[in-house]
Every structure is written in C-alpha cells, then in structure tokens.
Amino acid sequence: MVDVTEEEMDNPTFKSDTVLSDVHLHCPDQRHLMVRLNAVGQPVFLSYFKLLWNAEDLASEKHGRETATEREQQYRSGDEPYDTDRNNLKEEKELKIEGVEALLDDDGDLEVIRRPRSASDIEAEGVLRDRVHPVILMKGEEDAFEVEEQEGTCSDVVKIEHTMATPLEDVGKQVWRAAFLLADYILFKRDTFNCCSVLELGGGTGITSIIMATVAKRVYCTDVGEDLLAMCEKNVALNKQLVEPGGGEVKVKTLDWLKDEFCTDPEAPYSWSEEEIADLHDHCTVIMAADVFYDDDLTDALFRTLYRITHNLRNSCTVYLALEKRLNFTLRHMDVTCEAYSHFRNTLNDLENLQDRKMKYTVEPIKPDFCQFLIYERIEQLELWKIIAEQLT
C-alpha cells in the first residue's frame, strides 16, 4: 500500500510527453512533407498554407464551410438529404460487395492483387496507385529545398517548416491557430501596419512575422533556442517571394523574457547589435505575440518584457496579443477551468490599472469577425487583444 499525503492529493501533477497543435492535427493542406531531422532528432515537416487573396478564394472557402455546416445540420435533424446520402452509401456498398465477389476464385477463396514491385511493373500492368507513404524531400542541411525550388514560387502560398509533436518546452516549433488569427488581422488591416517597424515576441516558426513583413518595413522576430531560431530563419528564406516585393525585411533575433537585457554577445547566435537595439527603440510602433500564454511564469515574464520595452521606446506603440482559451478539467476545482487564460486576463487588467507617470496602457478586445485569409478553424475560443501603450511625457 502506498501512503499519499494530503498535500499530494491537493496538488496532483500530470505530465504529457508531447503536445500536438490542432493546426497540424486537422491540417487542411494536401501536401505535408518531411524534409529533415533537426538538431535534437525531431522530424521536421514542410507545410503549404494558401493565402485567400481575392474574392473568389474567399467565396470558395466560405461556401465550403457553409456547405459542410449545412450537411452537418441536415444529418442531425434527419432531413431528406441525409436519407439520400444514406441510400447512395448503400448503393456504393453493394457495388463494393459485387466487386469483392468478382475477385473470388472457383473455390470461393479471395484473390488478392499484389502491389507491383516497381514503376516498370505499374506501367506494364496499367495499374494506377497513389502513394500514401510520407515523402522525404531531402536529408541534411545542404540543398534542402532543391526540390521545392524546381517547382517555382508563387505569391499565394506560405511555406513553413515545423515539427508535428513536441515536448511542452518546444511548442514554438509548431504552428498554432492564434498565429493564424493574428495573421488574418494583419492582412485585413494592411494600411494600419504599412511601413511600420514591428517586434514579435515568441515568434516560433515565424509565420506571423512573415505575414507582417508583406506590409511592414522591418520585423524583428524573436524567440529563444538556437534550433528554433534556425528553423525560423529558414522559413523566412523560404518565403522571400512574399516579403521582397514590398520591400519588407524580417530579422530573426534571440530575446529571453527571463532576462532584463538584450543579448549583445557577438559570439552568440542571433544576438543583437547596438545599432539594431537603437533602431528598435527609435522606430518600433507595433509589438505582437501569438499563443504564448500557457504558463503563468512565462506570462508574467512576457508582461515584464512588454513593460520594459515600451518604456524604452521613443514613440507610443500598439501591442496585439492573440491567444486560444484552452479549457481543462482540474481535480482541484472539480470543474472545467482555464487557469492559464484567467492568469493572462488578471495580468492584463493589472497592466491597464498600473499607475505610471510615463506610460498609460489602454486595453480593448478586437472582435474576431474580420475576413479569413488562411484556412483554419476559427473557433470561438480564439481571442485578439489590443493594448495602446501611450507615452505621457
């Protein structure tokens, strides 16, 4: 028998080996390619995210969602279309049964058609078969994107390297829905961000910074971890066809919220130069972060970083924070709660109520009813907040 103290029962701890983003779990892309292993041995994939630039793309995507919703409602209500689909399904099953019977030999045994061993066998027998196994483009660092470059570039696709499932400390290597929500808002409000200088905190794979750089002048995309920053830098290079036409620029830099100063060590990868720090302080008018509020200590560190940086800026700035309110059942409350979100809201309120003679922070929510330029599920738990950091002196 194991003795469990009362304190241990009141503070249970559950650990999960891996975390998987819903963007990858329900990825709308047909192409999902493994390209390499990163420095810590994690498989790295390349995904294509289509931008719905024109009205036809938007209408087609909207029609698809409305059709799916309508069919779901019909299924639930038991309307006639459901009966029609059910009859069609029955006919398909009957055809499949007939096909199976046709494959039986004289003794009633099933004849199995073997998969051809080579491409020549396929051509010889006239058998067409789709490849369903993962496609590995290239191993190693050199010429990792040679295959993709042969296919050309286009202005309506964002190509992002990412991992599929990671430990909690590596979640920045995945793409999250809140990043898409913030990217949608940037594309919807292009004029607001035109020619701005922008700082992103917790940039991860860099997708939001890349979208921002299509309209902004310069974006400092920051995070921690050399392997993550290298992935981010590679994604910036993959999408230069989106950024360069508008004269935008993405600079990938390290920024640790748990430290009070920028890393200026020239020997450290992705460190800051004194000129870059001065440029940030003199010209930055927008700060943004997406889906970085999942740990209370990190949330506190981010708000301390926001406070410090906004105090050092020459101009007032606007901060955009996107997040997904994730619900969890806890034994402590015996109910479904959202403790990380609650802590975020409390910290946000503390910032707004802060008595400061130099800065005034005004917080307001942004209703997520703007156009959708990326294909993902915009669930009701997604939120976008705007903080106006106004210089008083």
From TrEMBL:
<comment type="function">
    <text>Protein N-lysine methyltransferase.</text>
</comment>
<dbReference type="InterPro" id="IPR019410">
    <property type="entry name" value="Methyltransf_16"/>
</dbReference>
<dbReference type="Pfam" id="PF10294">
    <property type="entry name" value="Methyltransf_16"/>
</dbReference>
<dbReference type="InterPro" id="IPR029063">
    <property type="entry name" value="SAM-dependent_MTases_sf"/>
</dbReference>
<feature type="region of interest" description="Disordered">
    <location>
        <begin position="61"/>
        <end position="86"/>
    </location>
</feature>
<comment type="subunit">
    <text>Interacts with members of the heat shock protein 90 and 70 families; these proteins probably are methylation substrates.</text>
</comment>
<keyword id="KW-0808">Transferase</keyword>
<dbReference type="InterPro" id="IPR038899">
    <property type="entry name" value="METTL22"/>
</dbReference>
<dbReference type="GO" id="GO:0008276">
    <property type="term" value="F:protein methyltransferase activity"/>
</dbReference>
<dbReference type="GO" id="GO:0032259">
    <property type="term" value="P:methylation"/>
</dbReference>
<comment type="similarity">
    <text>Belongs to the methyltransferase superfamily. METTL22 family.</text>
</comment>
<protein>
    <recommendedName>
        <fullName>Methyltransferase-like protein 22</fullName>
    </recommendedName>
</protein>
<keyword id="KW-0489">Methyltransferase</keyword>
<keyword id="KW-0597">Phosphoprotein</keyword>
<keyword id="KW-0539">Nucleus</keyword>
<dbReference type="GO" id="GO:0005634">
    <property type="term" value="C:nucleus"/>
</dbReference>
<keyword id="KW-0949">S-adenosyl-L-methionine</keyword>
